[in-house]
Amino acid sequence: MSIDAASLRASSAAARPRGRGRRSTLASIGLHGALSAASLIAVFPVFWVVVVSFKPDAKAIEATPSLVNDSSLDNYADVLTGAKGSFLAWFGNSVLIAALTTVLGVLLAATTAYALSRFRFPGRHWLLLSFLVVQMFPFAVLIVPLYNILLKLGLQGSALGLVLVYCSTAIPFCTFMLKGYFDGIPADIDEAGRVDGLSPLGVFWRLVLPLARPGLAVTGFYSFIVAWSEVAFASAFLSATDESKTLAVGLQVFVQQNRAEWGHLAAASVLVAIPAVIVFYAVQRFLVSGLAAGSVKG
């Protein structure tokens, strides 16, 4: 029995689910137009900050500053050479605090999340609930109690005290994220490692952590951003000297009550954003898989 091509095309068309055909030309134009407009709205403020960063302070406040005329690198030179603020000192403080927060926060969150994922112990559910409750509090409410704790510990005004504060705010989220990721790693891997003679720490360090790299990348990036761009805690818990400030706090010297140096502020803002962009591109290939795994498993 022979089946002609027309019959095959008709049967495949009948079997195709309705509503899942090709998008119409008008719908495609509308979708791409909306996405282009959204992208333009998101990118334009960043583009404008970059434009203003090349302008003198007097020209930066113009409604339509020229893209070519009066442009120079003077603002960047003033910021980097210390003529306007102690940018390099702020940069060093921010790098130190962000690096310590990232390493310590991810390490504590990973060990806590692994214990919550693999072991059953009294108070486990209450511990998870406490992490959730901590996330519900606005960070501004925590400034006074954290200030008193650091004062009693002798860490008020120090970088280590600020690192501990940032870890206390980043670890709950990171723990929830990593627990969901560890739940997606088969427990048979742990059993196989113990059969091969590995200790529980060895199983965690040599087998589980390498498989959890996407989740570690997400939590590491989150911890870094928390420490890199935060202002309220850094203003409250660091000493008032100019050399001890972080970048986010140091930018305030360009805009004060009686003067505003918008060109220098824009230049410093661009320089502050560069390390965050570099870190993002370093971990971007892990972000989508890590966020998806941590959000749906658990």
UniProtKB/TrEMBL annotation:
Coiled-coil parts of chain: none
Segment forming the signal sequence: none
Highest taxon above the source species: Bacteria
Membrane-crossing segments per the record: 26-50, 87-114, 126-147, 159-178, 262-283
Protein's cellular compartments: Cell membrane
Domain ABC transmembrane type-1 positions: 91-283
PROSITE patterns found in the cross-reference section: ABC_TM1
Single annotated GO MF: ABC-type maltose transporter activity
Listed GO biological process terms: maltodextrin transmembrane transport
GO cellular component: plasma membrane
CDD domains in UniProt: TM_PBP2
Keyword Nucleotide-binding annotated: no
Membrane topology qualifier: Multi-pass membrane protein
Keywords, alphabetical: Cell membrane, Membrane, Sugar transport, Transmembrane, Transmembrane helix, Transport
Xref: PANTHER family: MALTOSE TRANSPORT SYSTEM PERMEASE-RELATED, MALTOSE_MALTODEXTRIN TRANSPORT SYSTEM PERMEASE PROTEIN MALG
Record-stated family: Belongs to the binding-protein-dependent transport system permease family. MalFG subfamily.
Protein name per its UniProtKB record: Carbohydrate ABC transporter permease
Taxonomic source organism: Saccharopolyspora karakumensis
